[in-house]
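Methods: example folding runs. The two proteins below were folded one after another, and each record is reproduced exactly as written to the output file, sequence line first and structure-token line second.
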Amino acid sequence: MQDFLNKLTRKKMSAKSEARPQLSVTFPISTPKPSDSEIYQNLPFAETDPEPILLPLPGKIVVCYNVDGSSESLFVKQAGAVGIIVVRPLARGIDFSLQIPSTLIERKEAEELREYLENERNPIAKISSTMTALNTKPAPKMATFSSMGPNIISPGIIKPDITTPGVNILAAWPPSTLLATKEDFEYSIISGTSMSCPHASAIAGIIKSYHPSWNPSTIKSAMMTTC
């Protein structure tokens, strides 16, 4: 499944939304500039809301590099922006909550976008609803944050022994720790070994229930030779 579709032209940029899938927005694009005012550090566990750190950006779609959490989109929203274009590897995806309509592009597309911004007097962008692209095969593919053998130093070491799903996993989610969002979700989509490990543990638990006498090594062998 492909959750995004980016089209770049000399006149506009159109991209599928990663958030608020029913909303379509078309607004001018802006790249944030350093503010002359005081810069406040983001403190997710503070009792007060984070202070705005950007210049006013009313009605703008902002291009952000290396976004790793929802706080960046919160600051962009506080600055009055209506959308955010996140630049990061597509393989990493967006596995955190964004506060405003957003889309994801890679560095190559970002360079095309930068050229467009530099040459267009009134650049605009459109973030439209997410669409599922059928007949695509992104898997099997190892996640960027995971290991894939053989070992570079010692090719005789092939790890991991087994891999399980760990990218964009839908799971239960605790109340938000970012007080300024004022939003709580019962479920979220996240990635990482914390999501992959439960899959492997569940398989091992099922095998153990059918074969109580098997030791961990036997269970591991069964998993490795039957996947």
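Second run, written to the same file directly after the first:
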Amino acid sequence: MEASGNDVEYRLQKAANGLDLSQPDGKIAYLTACVSILATLDSKIEQEVYAGRIAAEVEIEKSSVMAQVEKQMRKRRRSQSVQEFREIQKATSGFGDAVNPQKSQNLRAANAEEALTAYVINNPDMANNIEKWIRPEDFVTDFNRRVYETVTERIRENRPVSPTDLTQDFSEQEMSRIAGMLYKASVGGETLEAAKDYCKIIKQEKSSAKLREPLKDDEAKRLFEEIQKNKLGK
């Protein structure tokens, strides 16, 4: 509290620097700066204490200062909500994704991979069932495949797969993504039937991805020779 108070004191003093508080313009500029500072405080008591002092300095009612502080706090919350929404949109769409750059081009597959991986983490006793339905190589995106492989390998070795336990295998940014997978799973609910559907989606998307891949030189040559052979046979 004392450290917090010292910091606030310093910021308020700095806000007054260069301002003539005997003039209306100086009072308004000072009040505006102080309101922005108080809006960052978590403690309502601290806000009330400093608001009272500031009100006396600029010769207005304390309630007027607090009204401006609350207005500023609402504005900050709206701004944070918008930012959080944009982050969620970005994560869901996969655009600009440094952790899983393949996601934006394989959105349906990546979302199913994430949901399936979260299910296995939350239900390690079901891993054997899942491994009957899908293999790591069926995954479309490299990052999700690596997470799934790591999780299932740990389960086979009877090692825990909680987020805390996985930190040794993944970076902080990657762990943030895994935490996001688990959060979405907790909101959406999860069942074995849903996991089975995720496996089907992943395999379908894997097949579609293969069809979209450009032919390698030897494959193209082989296909051309086969077409030519068929033409000659007619």
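Comment on the second run: The longest helix spans residues 62-93.
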